[in-house]
Amino acid sequence: MSSPLQLRVLLKQSYGRTPTKGFLSGGQPADMATPALRGSTGRYLGEVTRVSGNKLYFNSRDSLHIGDRIRIQPGSDKVGTAFTLKQLWAGAKAVKKMTAGPVCVANPFGPKFKTGDAVFKVSSQQAFSMSDVAARRKLGQVKAVKQPLTLNVNLNEHQMVIVASVGELKLEVAYPVEFYPAQTSPLSQQTLTQVFEQTAQAPFELQELIAADLPDVVVPPKRLKEIRRDFYTHLQHKIDQHNEEQLQQCKQRAIASLLQPAPSYKQRGELVVAVRDLREMRALDQPDVDKILVPLTPAVLHRRWRVNPTQCRGVVWDIPFVIFDQDWRTIQQAVHCLVDAGFRNFRLNNLSHFALFKNKKDMLLQTGYRLFCLNTQAMLSWQEFGAVGSEMYIEDEQQNMAQLLKRSGDYPLRAVIYTAVPLITSRIRISGVKSDAPLISDRGDEYKVLNKGGLTVVQSQRDFSLTGELGLLHDMGCASYLADISHLGVFSKEGQQVLDAVRGGRGIANTELFNFNSGLE
Description:
CATH topology of the largest domain: TIM Barrel
Structural class: alpha/beta
Distance between the termini: 16 Å
Largest sheet: 8 strands, antiparallel
Helix content: 25-40%
Radius of gyration: 33 Å
CATH architecture of the largest domain: Alpha-Beta Barrel
Strand content: 25-35%
Strand order of the largest sheet: 5-4-10-1-2-9-6-7
């Protein structure tokens, strides 16, 4: 199955349009941004002044080149359209580049653009025109900084003894050599320097060679070169070994600086079930269900809440992952309404959600898996923000999850054991794709497209499931689980099959484990 990041890249390449305001899937589709223009991606150039046939006119704040990529953003806040500049005109003359000022470019979309539309540069021509060979050549020009090397060379009893110093590393090797009395030009420090300064691509560079009290002898040049090659091979291997040891030591120090293993959060295995909507809140009455996760929608504002202790304790409100500007105030009012009614449990899926609970006390805020919790530093950060628990990431591996659970102490970590996987969430509709017809990748993976509430969600046809790994999760110290069957319905046949699998600790066919067993590279 393609990962969420892979699918975002594939979709961008396939449809050739750069997401604009409202693209909240977590990717960074362009390499420039304009902080002053809220929600806009790209460098702002100006506004369209005229559209004439296949030509588009605007005043550019920046220079333009053939190969630059620009996006025209309608003033109506609809999806922008990006294209690569293939023709530029200065008056009636075609040119390859233009300075800032009045610009005329080729318009491949005809009357689609209107006067007043905003123009953004989303990438420069170098990013599109540079070939792989040229890119490798340019990278090859960057030379790594070499470490200074000092050599000390001595000759005694038909042996050449070489001592190397590279930083704190030292290496001494003795080589047997045959040498002859010199009639003229005996072996000298200068000769040895000329031989040993040839370090080729090695990560060190000869800075100083010391050769005191050399006898008046001659060593065959061929033998000197053999010694140099062998010695430098050994030296580079020792440096690589030393660097690896240093890396492991740094890693161990970093691990030691993290939270240390501690008694894990112990309780009876808690099961949280995500439901479809308010009508399924009665799922809380099922004996195996400890809590329910209910989507927070504006509908809560139209209900008179009489909260009993069971509901207050057992209902967790799920804040929408994507909240548009025009909906923020309504969601804020819904949160106030629920808090005033006595609810305290909320699940947050976006960093901005913490602002909804500013100045509210005694809240039980839990972070969803989209707010990554892959190490103890992340866990500590969410606690600093005010969270009292977190979900582990669905793409994590069991070894890392086990280490995290060991170090969680009394901070409860929840494992997602069943859910549909939204790979991309965007305001951009994918033209030509219907919800009842799955997308099929070149590897045969199937995806479905859902259009709801102004959002396009692409998700895998195969759900994520760890229901067959509950015993292992329990042994790792996990005592809280989330089964998200909101897309199936709690009381549907499929939803009940999932809950039965959870009760029995059985795996479910046609589902994915992601990296749980395979591990992360």
